């Protein structure tokens, strides 16, 4: 009996003291080259500075996140999610409020800051093309939807997220400042015209593979994937005409056991230098306005934040509010 | 305390002891099924009738939407196709394995098992590379002058069927092999001696004897196909989406567990019903024909 009590006491002490120590925390992201870059640019300097180990996990999965929060068994302390999801999850009470006494938001692009999230990096949907495989590359969204001038397969993002619907509407002649609220019927009607020519990509690596193999020689892809493709020596062309921006966001799930460490991690990840380092590695833009100064002009030139001439910003708040409704229609249309 | 000299001393307590250990052995199995199957299914059922609003709304939506009905139909069509093609390819292979010399058999078994043990994702991506329009198969066919335009072999029903059939083949070959191997060759000899030609030997002797194996293998392939996710998701297009992918969308992307749960339960009920049907018709036959 005595030993049982002693054992229980030890367990209790360990259980109580464990969360307070916070020697490590868990960061979840989307895997692949982007998460590798996040690890190098954010996690390594963070560990050096604070002594807190950052365990990498992923891929991010909203169903899993919800399950963790509901069960009160949160294994992720900081999660890289899509901007519209962050806005929605914040409202529905699944996220911790961010501590802006730790995170300095004065230097962050205000487009990507909410009570529950700050930008992680921002990217653009651009028109990518394998110039070796075709006679001419499409330059505009209208070109990409024109199967007479540009015959062949084209690739688009498979999931319901900002990007494709906007592209369809822009191709159909909707002015950029009149995109929202999204005219879904019009967008689907436009998408119907090329539906049989679409090959969907569900992850960044797949979009690269489709372009590189010329299975789909052009399409709408994340700009960073074009940077990576160009680096492999394939002759690619990227059109920034009306590039559509969206951002990933960093959030802390409600009930995270290491909230304090999580806030410190986000503070470091969004500070100027780590943001610049990530941008350099991925081709995605920093959300810290001081980062650009820290990069060489050649690199900075290729980032989405320099392509503002005809840039279109996807409205994350609109998406957050209508995420479910759009998603249902989107998948129903796809399966038709 | 002698164990074998006193017969009554051994025989009498034995049944009691056996009953006891028998029951004890079943408890962990029940606990396992309870914790890992019944409880989660019950939770899923609850969520499907409670979220987002209590009631049968999710089920009504599933059955009422032509899109979801099409996904159900797709799931059955693809699973059926895969099952039939697997049987057509698997039966001759299993038959050949059963009559081959032992050495060759083990080589072919090694190939079968190695392909089963190779990472599923890697195998699926390999098919993607082989089947695409700029892929090996199309290039070869064009090079041989058989076609002049690449065939659409992937991102459609063809791609899913090829990829899934390949992955399912071992699951039909192995049970069939087990059954065919146990068929006494002298029965076929006897049939031939009695005047049956090769076709009659096959259709009137071999196939009926192998039926339990075919039924078991076909059911396994069909049921596994119903819930298949990775291969249809990667090799198929959105127009031939299957149920598992719909469930993943509900759970991962739309975070709508009510609908996801409802769809998952429909799939489960269909699967269990099929199993019940199989038990009803073939359950009393021991695969192996003994």
Enumerate the spans of chain A where pLDDT stays under 50 for 5 or more consecutive residues.
1-7, 9-20
Query: How many DSSP helices of chain B?
Result: 13
Strand content of chain A: 15-25%
Distance between the termini of chain A: 66 Å
The pLDDT mean of chain B sits at: 86
Describe it.
The complex is a heterodimer of chains A (336) and B (290). With 336 residues, chain A is an alpha/beta fold. Helices cover 43% and strands 18% of the residues of chain A. Chain A has helices at 2-21, 32-50, 62-71, 83-91, 141-144, 164-171, 184-192, 204-212, 223-231, 259-269, 272-282, 297-301, 316-335; strands at 24-28, 53-57, 78-82, 118-130, 154-157, 198-201, 218-222, 236-251, 312-313. In chain A, strands 1, 2, 3, 4, 5, 6, 7, 8 and 9 form a nine-stranded mixed β-sheet that branches. In chain A, helix 6 packs across helix 7 and helix 8 packs across helix 9. Chain B is mostly helical. Helix content of chain B is 79%, strand content 0%. In chain B, helix 3 packs across helix 13, helix 9 (185-193) packs antiparallel against helix 10 (198-226) and helix 12 packs antiparallel against helix 13. The interface between A and B is medium-sized, with 23 and 25 residues.
Draw up the topology in text.
The complex is a heterodimer of chains A (336) and B (290).
Chain A: H1 2-21, E1 24-28, H2 32-50, E2 53-57, H3 62-71, E3 78-82, H4 83-91, E4 118-130, H5 141-144, E5 154-157, H6 164-171, H7 184-192, E6 198-201, H8 204-212, E7 218-222, H9 223-231, E8 236-251, H10 259-269, H11 272-282, H12 297-301, E9 312-313, H13 316-335
Parallel strand pairs in A: 1-2, 1-3, 5-6, 5-7, 8-9
Antiparallel strand pairs in A: 3-8, 4-7, 4-8
Helix pairs in contact in A: 2-10, 2-11, 4-13, 6-7, 8-9
Chain B: H1 7-11, H2 13-50, H3 57-64, H4 66-99, H5 102-117, H6 120-131, H7 136-143, H8 157-182, H9 185-193, H10 198-226, H11 230-235, H12 243-253, H13 257-282
Helix pairs in contact in B: 2-13, 3-13, 4-8, 4-10, 8-10, 9-10, 10-13, 12-13
């Amino acid at each position: 009996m005595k030993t049982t009590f002693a054992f229980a006491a030890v367990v209790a002490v360990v259980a109580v003291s464990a969360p307070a120590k916070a020697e490590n925390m868990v960061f979840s992201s989307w895997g692949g080259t982007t998460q590798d870059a996040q690890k190098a640019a954010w996690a390594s300097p963070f560990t050096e500075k604070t002594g807190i180990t950052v365990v990498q996990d992923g891929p991010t999965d909203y169903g899993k996140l919800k399950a963790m929060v509901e069960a009160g068994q949160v294994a992720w302390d900081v999660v890289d999610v899509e901007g519209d999801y962050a806005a929605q999850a914040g409202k529905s009470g699944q996220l911790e409020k961010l501590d802006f006494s730790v995170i300095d938001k004065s230097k962050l692009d205000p487009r990507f800051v909410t009570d529950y999230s700050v930008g992680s990096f921002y990217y653009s949907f651009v028109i990518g093309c394998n110039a070796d495989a075709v006679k001419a590359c499409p330059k505009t969204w209208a070109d990409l939807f024109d199967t007479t001038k540009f015959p062949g397969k084209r690739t688009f993002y498979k999931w319901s997220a900002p990007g494709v619907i906007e592209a369809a509407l822009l191709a159909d002649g909707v002015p950029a400042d009149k995109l929202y609220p999204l005219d879904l019927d019009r967008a689907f009607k436009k998408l119907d015209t090329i539906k049989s020519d679409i090959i969907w990509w569900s992850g960044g690596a797949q979009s690269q593979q489709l372009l590189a193999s010329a299975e789909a020689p052009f399409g709408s892809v994340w700009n960073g994937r074009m940077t990576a493709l160009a680096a492999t020596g394939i002759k690619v062309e990227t059109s920034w005409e009306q590039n559509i921006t969206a951002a990933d966001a960093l959030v802390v799930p409600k009930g995270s056991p290491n909230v304090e460490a999580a806030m410190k991690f986000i503070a470091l990840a969004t500070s100027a230098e780590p943001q610049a380092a990530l941008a350099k590695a991925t081709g995605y833009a920093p959300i810290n306005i001081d980062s650009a100064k820290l990069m060489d002009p050649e690199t900075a030139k290729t980032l989405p934040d320099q392509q503002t001439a005809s840039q279109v910003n996807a409205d994350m708040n609109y998406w957050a509010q209508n995420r479910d409704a759009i998603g249902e229609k989107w998948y129903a249309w796809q399966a038709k | 305390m002698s164990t074998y000299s006193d017969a009554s001393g051994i025989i009498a307590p034995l049944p009691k002891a056996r009953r006891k250990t028998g029951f004890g052995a079943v408890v962990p199995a029940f606990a396992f099924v309870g914790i890992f199957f019944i409880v989660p299914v019950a939770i899923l059922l609850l969520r499907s009738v409670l979220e987002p609003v209590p009631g049968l709304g999710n089920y009504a939506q599933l059955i009422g939407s032509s899109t979801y009905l099409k996904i159900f139909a797709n799931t059955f069509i693809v699973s059926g196709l895969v099952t039939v093609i697997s049987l057509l390819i698997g039966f001759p292979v299993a038959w050949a394995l059963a009559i081959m010399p032992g050495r060759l058999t083990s080589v072919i078994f090694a190939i079968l098992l190695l392909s089963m043990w190779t990472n599923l994702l890697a195998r699926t991506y390999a098919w993607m590379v082989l089947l695409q329009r700029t892929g090996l198969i199309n290039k070869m066919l064009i090079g041989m002058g058989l076609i002049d335009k690449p065939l659409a072999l992937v991102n459609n029903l063809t791609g899913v069927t090829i990829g899934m059939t390949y992955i399912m083949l071992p699951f039909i070959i192995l049970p069939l092999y087990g059954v065919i191997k146990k068929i006494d060759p002298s029965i076929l000899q006897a049939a031939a001696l009695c005047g049956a030609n090769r076709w009659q030997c096959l259709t009137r002797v071999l196939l009926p004897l192998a039926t339990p194996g075919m039924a078991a293998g076909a059911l396994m392939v069909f049921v596994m196909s119903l819930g298949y996710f990775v291969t249809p998701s990667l090799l198929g297009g959105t127009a031939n989406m299957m149920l598992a992918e719909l469930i993943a969308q509900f759970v991962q992307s739309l975070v709508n567990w009510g609908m996801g749960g409802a769809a998952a339960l429909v799939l489960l009920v269909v699967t269990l019903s099929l199993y019940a049907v199989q038990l009803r018709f073939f359950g009393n036959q021991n695969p192996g024909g003994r």
